[in-house]
Every structure is written in C-alpha cells, then in structure tokens.
Write a structure and sequence with these properties.
The chain has 211 residues and is mainly α. The protein is globular, with a radius of gyration of 20 Å. It is 84% helix and 0% strand. It is built from seven helices and no strands. It has helices spanning 2-19, 30-54, 61-87, 95-125, 129-153, 156-174, 179-210.
Length: 211
C-alpha cells in the first residue's frame, strides 16, 4: 500500500510539473538563449556598422559590404546547427514550454517566407525600400512571440521585451526613407530586445542547471 501511495504521489507531482510548464526547465535552455543572444549581437553589430557608414564615419567598399552582408548570417547558421544538434535529444516538458519553442520556430519559418515576399518585390520593382519593410515586419512578429511568452510566463520583463519589439518595428516601418535613423533603431532593438534577453535567458538556464 505504501508503495502504491508513493507511486501515486510521484505521478501527481509529475503531472503538476507538466501543468506548470516543467518549472521552466524545458524552455529555452543555455544553448537556445546563447543562440538568441548571439543573433542579436551579430545583427546588431551589422546594422550599427551600416549606420556608421551611412553617416560617413567609415567606408567599407564593395568587398567590405559583401562580407558585412553575409558574415553574420553564416556565423548564425553555424551556431544554429550546433544548437540543433545539442538540443535534438533534450525533452520538451510542459505545454507552455512546447508552445514557446513552437512560437519561435513558427516565427523562423515565417521569416523565411517574408524574405521571399519582400526580396522578390524589391527585385522586380528595383526599389530597395520594399526590402526595408522586411525587418520591420520581423520586429513586429518578434513582439507577438514575446507577448505569447509573457502570457505564458507572466514575467514583467517579457512584457517589456514584447513592447520594445513592437515599438521598434512600427518605427522602422515609418522610417524607411531615413536610412540613418532606421539603422540606429534597428541596432538598438537588436541589442536591447534580442541580445540582452537571450543572454539573460542563458544565464537563468545556467543557474537552474547548477541548482
């Protein structure tokens, strides 16, 4: 009888863990947080360098601009591959954790579709301003994802991140004719609402693993 009661208690504890989101242990882990933060830093540096060039502080030339255009994405793809391999066998416990990871994955898929939509429009019309709407929409999508995360986790800082993404996204959409301000806001948004939250989540995951 005692063994049966112990089993029941363990089962109930397991079900409660799932219902509560797995204690947030199954969410974005160390590798996922590091990847998200690294993307913010990589693309933040990219847009900041473009801002400096737009203001005439530096001149990269054709070769330099090509390297700057592709290097952050290549580095990010390498890091993403490492994270996918690392997290392939990591179980996703809890409905909220699965929802969070699905939201980020869905946003990534949507981003690929948006690349095609705005890229083709810009190429056919030979108007680069069409392409500039792409980052604005991506920022808004990130804001929507973080709003979902806030509703699931109820952390005030997550609401701040969601608001930051949305505000920056709207600002980018309104400033496609002001390249300098556009790039400056993009840099700020990437550092503040992608880089910082990513490394903060990484740190939290490290602390949970050490506990």
């Amino acid at each position: 009888m005692n063994d049966e009661l112990k089993t029941v208690r363990e089962d109930l504890a397991f079900l409660r863990t799932i219902a509560e989101g797995g204690g947030e242990r199954g969410g974005i882990g160390v590798a996922g947080g590091a990847l998200y933060g690294s993307a913010g830093v990589l693309y933040g540096i990219q847009t900041l360098v473009y801002f400096a060039q737009e203001r005439g502080v530096i001149q990269l030339g054709f070769a330099g601009n090509m390297v700057l255009a592709w290097l952050p994405t290549l580095v990010f793809l390498v890091l993403m591959t490492i994270v996918i391999i690392h997290d392939r066998k990591r179980p996703q416990v809890g409905a909220s954790n699965r929802a969070i990871n699905a939201a980020f994955a869905g946003t990534g898929i949507a981003n690929l579709a948006l690349v095609l939509i705005f890229g083709v429009a810009a190429a056919r019309t030979r108007d680069f301003h069409y392409w500039l709407f792409h980052p604005a929409v991506v920022f808004v999508l990130q804001g929507a994802v973080w709003y979902v995360i806030f509703m699931l986790r109820k952390r005030p800082w997550m609401a701040l991140v969601a608001t930051g993404w949305l505000v920056c996204g709207v600002a980018l959409g309104m400033l496609i004719w002001r390249a300098d301000l556009y790039l400056l806001i993009a840099s700020f948004g990437l550092f503040a609402f992608m880089g910082a939250p990513g490394f903060y989540m990484m740190r939290q995951a490290q602390q949970r693993s050490a506990a």
